Amino acid sequence: MTTDPAPRTAAPVLDASGAATDASPERRSPSRRPRHLTGSLLVRHLLAHLATYLVLAVAAVLTLGPFLFSVTTAFTSAQQFAQQGPLSIPAPAVLENFLGLFTPSDGSGGFVTPVVVTVQMVAVILVGQMVFSVLAAYAFAQLRFPGRDLLFWVYVATLMVPQVVVVVPLYLMMSEVGLRNTFWALVMPFVLGSPYAIFLLRENFRGVPSELMDAMRIDGAGTLRLLWHLVVPLNRPIIVTLVLITVVTHWNNFMWPMVITSGPEWRVITVATSALQSQYNNNWTLVMAGTTLAMLPLVLLMIVFQKQITSSVGDATMR
Fold first, then answer.
1. Domain that includes residue 158, residue range
2. Would the pTM count as exceeding 0.85?
């Protein structure tokens, strides 16, 4: 008479410490078991995703809606705008509003003079701010002199002062020296550097490896050669980002040009766009054409240099 053999048990598995562990599927950790969504849990996940995308869609409409409205209205004829309202799609798209901006009127050259003045102003401020900000940031980061840190933080503290507070003192200073309603009055308050740019560049310049700088000094490099051939190339992404910030800031500057200038001679594009609202009170297609023209160069800059901006943000995060 034979008997059934005893059931075999799974051999114990030894862990790293030599202790026996049970590797049977029934005794595995619950965390390792595949999780299956139940009906109610799946519905909640879908509702959460739907709510997220709904919020993002509303935010996108609120953010991009004014720009889209400006562009579509700029290409809409005045007759269609008056008959169908501001939300109508241009049918057909016309360029008469943009051509009307550059048509001379009231003894001025239309939008030609504001565009030329704005480009000149931004170019001078950009060159001045980049040169002086790079030099000052290098001095605060690498050179040693008495009161360096105190002077740096006092200068950076001026970022806390609102621009509206210094408008009246600046206006009085420019008036006293006879620079009111001149090109130099537009650029002088901003051309000698920016506290924000100096602060950002200083923090990046301090991250340059000292071994590289010592090696170049051994080869006979002076301060300017170290700056232009080592420090600046290593920090090119953040400098490109500062260039874009400077261009956008001063292209959109409205308060100071409006206060310090009068008349069409030194009018910048922001002040000229604002003047369109009073000059052409009922011609909103022309006003939107001016608004579109004012923001077009900035949009193109952001599209062209978006990789450099992403790279600079990544470098700043790693540091």
1. 109-318
2. no
